[in-house]
C-alpha cells in the first residue's frame, strides 16, 4: 500500500474526510455537453481541461478526496467510438492524472472511479442490477479497467453505485490483489440494494476483505442514506462511506432530473455519529453544497 493510501486510512481512524460532489452537474454548469453513451468520460478525449477545471472547483470547495471521471469509461464503450484498447487504457490513466493535477498543492487524495457494468450500457441498468451475467463475467469485465486505473497510481479505488451483491462480489474479486485499497458503495432504495437484496447481507459480504477501507452507499436519497449508514457500520465492520444525491429524481426514460432538491448539510452530523468517515455528495450536489458540508464538519467537536 502506498504512503498516501496509508495516510488516508489513518485519517479515517481520526475523523471524517470530505469527498467531492457530482462531476456531471459541475461539467454542465461549465457549459459541457454530456449527451451520448460515454457521458462525462467522452471529455477525457475531447476536453480534458474541462474535467480538470471541474475537479478544481471541488478542491476549492474543501473536498479532500477527488473522484475521477472514469465512472462510465470502459474499453467496450471507447471501442464503439473507434478508440483502440491501448488508447482506451491511456484515457483511463488520464482520468487519474487530471484529478491529481487538480489536487496539486493540497492534501486531497485521488479516488479512481470504477462504475458498475450497467453504467456502460447507458440505459439506467445501474439502478436495477441483475444484468444476466455471471460473477465470473463481471469480474473479467472489471479487472481490465481496474488494471488500467491502478497503473496510473490512484490512492484508492471507488467501487461505486453498485446495484447488487453479484456485482459487488465480482468487484471485490477483481480488486483483491491490485495493491490499491478500495471502498465499496451500493446504490440503494429503502433498506435494500437496487436489485432487491437486504442491505445487511450486502454489507456483511465485505467482512474478511482487508483491502476494503470503507463500505456504504451513494447515488441514493439522503433519507435512504440515513438508514443505510448504521446498517453499514454494523454489518461491514468498516468505516462508512456515504454520498447521496441532491434529492432530485432521475428519469431514465426521459433522461432528465425532476423534483425538489433536499440535501441539508446538517445531516452529516448524524452520519458521522453513526460511523460515517467518508462523506460527500453524488448527482446534482455541487461545490456550494460541498462547501456547506465542509463548514458542518469543521464545526463538529
From TrEMBL:
The lineage of its organism: Bacteria, Bacillati, Actinomycetota, Actinomycetes, Kitasatosporales. Pfam families: S-methyl_trans (PF02574). GO terms for biological process: methionine biosynthetic process; methylation; S-methylmethionine cycle. This is Homocysteine methyltransferase. NCBIfam families: PRK09485.1. Its cofactor is Zn(2+). Gene3D superfamilies: Homocysteine-binding-like domain. Residues 5-297 form the Hcy-binding domain. InterPro entries: BHMT-like, HCY_dom, HCY_dom_sf, Hcy_S-methyltransferase. GO terms for molecular function: S-adenosylmethionine-homocysteine S-methyltransferase activity; zinc ion binding. PANTHER family: HOMOCYSTEINE S-METHYLTRANSFERASE-LIKE ISOFORM 1, ZGC:172121. It comes from the Bacteria. Zn(2+) binds at residues 219, 282-283. PROSITE patterns: HCY. The keyword Transferase applies. Keywords: Metal-binding, Methyltransferase, Transferase, Zinc.
Amino acid at each position: 500500500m502506498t504512503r498516501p493510501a496509508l495516510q488516508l486510512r489513518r485519517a479515517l481512524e481520526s475523523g471524517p474526510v470530505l469527498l467531492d460532489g457530482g462531476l456531471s452537474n459541475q461539467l454542465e454548469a461549465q457549459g459541457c455537453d454530456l449527451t451520448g453513451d460515454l457521458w462525462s468520460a467522452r471529455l477525457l478525449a475531447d476536453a480534458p481541461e474541462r474535467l480538470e477545471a471541474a475537479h478544481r472547483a471541488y478542491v476549492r470547495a474543501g473536498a479532500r478526496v477527488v473522484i475521477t471521471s472514469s465512472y462510465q469509461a470502459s474499453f467496450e464503450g471507447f471501442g464503439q467510438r473507434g478508440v483502440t484498447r491501448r488508447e482506451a487504457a491511456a484515457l483511463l490513466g488520464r482520468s487519474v492524472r487530471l484529478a491529481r493535477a487538480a489536487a496539486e498543492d493540497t492534501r486531497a487524495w485521488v479516488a479512481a472511479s470504477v462504475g458498475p457494468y450497467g453504467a456502460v450500457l447507458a440505459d439506467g441498468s445501474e439502478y436495477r442490477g441483475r444484468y444476466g451475467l455471471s460473477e465470473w463475467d463481471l469480474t473479467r469485465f472489471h479487472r481490465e479497467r481496474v488494471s488500467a486505473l491502478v497503473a496510473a497510481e490512484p490512492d484508492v479505488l471507488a467501487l461505486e453505485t453498485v446495484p447488487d451483491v453479484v456485482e459487488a462480489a465480482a468487484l471485490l474479486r477483481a480488486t483483491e490483489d491490485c495493491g490499491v485499497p478500495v471502498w465499496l458503495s451500493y446504490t440503494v432504495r429503502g433498506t435494500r440494494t437496487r436489485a432487491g437484496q437486504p442491505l445487511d447481507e450486502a454489507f456483511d459480504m465485505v467482512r474478511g476483505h482487508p483491502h476494503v477501507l470503507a463500505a456504504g452507499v451513494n447515488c441514493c436519497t439522503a433519507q435512504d442514506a440515513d438508514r443505510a449508514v448504521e446498517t453499514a457500520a454494523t454489518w461491514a465492520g468498516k468505516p462508512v462511506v456515504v454520498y447521496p444525491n441532491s434529492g432530485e429524481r432521475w428519469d431514465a426514460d426521459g433522461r432528465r432530473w425532476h423534483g425538489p432538491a433536499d440535501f441539508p448539510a446538517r445531516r452529516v452530523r448524524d452520519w458521522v455519529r453513526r460511523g460515517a468517515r467518508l462523506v460527500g455528495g453524488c448527482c446534482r450536489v455541487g461545490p456550494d453544497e460541498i462547501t456547506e458540508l465542509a463548514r458542518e464538519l469543521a464545526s463538529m467537536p
